[in-house]
Design brief:
The protein is 41% helix and 15% strand. It has helices at residues 2-44, 139-154, 180-190, 228-252, 268-273, 277-281, 297-303, 306-328, and strands at 74-75, 82-83, 116-121, 133-134, 137-138, 163-166, 194-201, 208-212, 217-218, 224-225, 258-263, 286-293. Residues 1-14 and 37-110 have low confidence and may be disordered.
């Protein structure tokens, strides 16, 4: 009897243990399911923080006074390359003129691996607004018109050459300005492979001229630059740009002279500073193209026409392509 009673007690204990084990396993399963539910909702619930596409713009400075540059960027679709935005707190207009805040077009997502080219339509700056009328044309408007056509050429959807950042998004020379320093900073922040500055010359000459920083200069605020590497690479890019432009210009516009490649030190500002202000601040190859002499009636007639602007943009685009290849294969 004792053995039978002992055996029954054992069975009862085993059943109790089995029940407890089952309850324990059930609780573990329920906890796992509950934890999974919380994890799923945490991943899929929209963030309470609004998405930001970058800080408000600050690439359009207002005064020639040296204000610390703000590291303002906006993400580029595609590969997230930082690109500056224009307008904002540094935008300035003369009294009585409202400065409409503008945003510089970001580098387009035409290809994440393509280099970035910063196109700088010359003027209005702290030095010159570019609004003087010569042969019915204003430099500030011509440089912007050609810049837009060059941008379209470089970002052609079928055969893109580069992504583009522009230093201004307004055509007129009234209202806000972009200082020469800030133009270079826009290219620097964007990580540009090339800074291309578009201008029109004045004087007794004719044709197009390419300038590059051929020596170290000192800007009005004491900034010294560019580096020896930027000087070397700028010359390499200038030579390649000239060759590419000539391929288009010579057959199409044989009467528009190619004045060749010259150093910044040959310019009015360069003679005083050693280099143009934009070149002093540039951290990438920096080229200035004087596309025509607006003071020359024949040059002005050409660049004032849609066909002439398109031809210039294509020549510049071909030159940029040559320059980028040369820079890619530099030693």
């Amino acid at each position: 009897m004792g053995e039978r009673i002992y055996f029954k007690g054992q069975q009862s204990g085993l059943r109790s243990n089995t029940l407890l084990l089952g309850l324990g396993l059930l609780m573990i399963v329920m906890l796992c399911l509950l934890g999974g539910w919380f994890i799923w909702h945490g991943v899929n619930r929209p963030s309470a923080r609004p998405a930001t596409a970058g800080a408000p713009g600050d690439t359009t400075p207002g005064t020639p006074a040296a204000t610390p540059a703000q590291p303002l960027t906006a993400s580029v679709s595609g590969n997230g390359t930082p690109v500056p935005v224009a307008g904002g707190s540094n935008a300035q207009s003369p009294a009585g003129n409202e400065s409409a805040p503008g945003t510089a077009p970001p580098a387009q997502s035409v290809g994440g691996d393509l280099p970035i080219v910063c196109i700088d339509p010359g003027h209005p700056s702290e030095v010159n607004r570019g609004t003087t009328v010569q042969n019915g044309l204003q430099e500030v408007q011509i440089t912007y018109d050609v810049a837009l056509k060059l941008k379209a050429y470089l970002e052609d959807q079928e055969h893109p050459i580069a992504r583009v950042v522009m230093t201004r998004d307004f055509r007129e020379g009234t209202g806000k300005i972009v200082t020469n320093r800030r133009r270079a900073e826009i290219a620097n922040i964007a990580g540009a492979a090339l800074l291309l500055r578009l201008h029109c010359d004045t004087g007794s000459g004719s044709g197009y001229t390419i300038y590059y920083p051929d020596r170290v200069g000192t800007a009005a605020d004491g900034k010294v630059g560019p580096t020896a590497q930027v000087i070397r690479e700028s010359y390499l890019a200038a030579s390649a740009l000239e060759g590419g432009m000539e391929q288009i210009m010579t057959p199409s516009l044989p009467n528009l002279p190619n004045n060749g490649v010259k150093g910044d030190s040959a310019t009015y500002v360069g003679r005083k500073q050693g280099a143009l202000t934009g070149s002093v601040y540039a951290q990438e190859p920096a080229l200035t193209v004087e596309m025509v002499y607006l003071s020359n009636p024949n040059d002005a007639k050409m660049i004032g026409s849609e066909a002439g602007q398109q031809m210039m943009a294509e020549a510049l685009g071909n030159g940029v392509q040559h320059a980028l290849v040369a820079l890619e294969h530099r030693e």
